[in-house]
Amino acid sequence: MKKIKPVPFRHRPKGLTIIYEDQDIIVANKSCGLLTVEANYERVKTAHRILTIYIRKGSLKSKKLLFPVHRLDRDTSGVLVFAKSFDASETLKMQWKDVKNRYIAVVHGTLKEKSGTISSYLTENEKHEVHSVKDHKKGDLAKTRYKVVGETRVYSLIEIELLTSRKNQIRVHLSERGHPLVGDTKYGKKDGPKGRLALHSQFLTFKHPRAGKDVTFQAEVPFFFKRHFKIA
Asked: What is the pLDDT of residues 213-224, one digit of tens each?
């Protein structure tokens, strides 16, 4: 893999941090509140847009494109990958079901079972709210593996590994178990602590589209998570 040389400061992206870049991929640490890709209500400030401008190095004539490989929710921070070519994008998407994605989260309460796997069938209603259903024909199988790594009297710090990748999967699974994520106003406590959603994609492991070897990237845990727990 050929790593790209550092670019002049004036061309560096604003709003996120680049963790790694080579001729095939860009790996960034997305901040909370930033969309991954364009939506009807946000046409400029997205991770995709910021990094597209970055790879074009300020040239209005540049036709360089950046291809989304996966997404993080707007309020989720952490490791995010884009491909620099259509072929690299397709290669990554084909193997994405085998990607290892580890999150860290802070939830309300203390979990009785300190580790385990939550499984259910998820579906989405007309209000774009995701929830579990018993009938497997009406939802998509979702599996979330978790482990408690820290506790206080009112919160738990947990590591999460996605065994499937469904919309709002982590947030729904923990909420339905009675332990919603801190800061989750959609599936959690409306009167909980104010601030960001306590969900961060910390590690991501996948096969590099050119080299074919496993690569692992880490996004530093935000201070928000370190406020009550000792995290390296």
From this structure: 999 999 999 888
Domain annotation covers residue 58: yes
pTM of the predicted model as reported, rounded to 2 decimal places: 0.88
What is the CATH number for 80?
A: 3.30.2350.10
| Selection from 36, 30, 26 nearest residue 82 by Cα | 26
Residue 162 covered by a domain: yes
How far, rounded to the nearest angstrom, does the alpha carbon of residue 95 sit from its chain's CA centroid? 17
Domain carrying residue 114: 9-226
| Catalytic residue (one of 73, 75, 140, 214) | 73
Q: What is the DSSP letter of 154?
A: S
Q: Which of 220, 218, 210, 200 is nearest to 83 (CA)?
A: 210
Residue 24 falls in the annotated catalytic set: no
- Residue at 168 is within a domain: yes
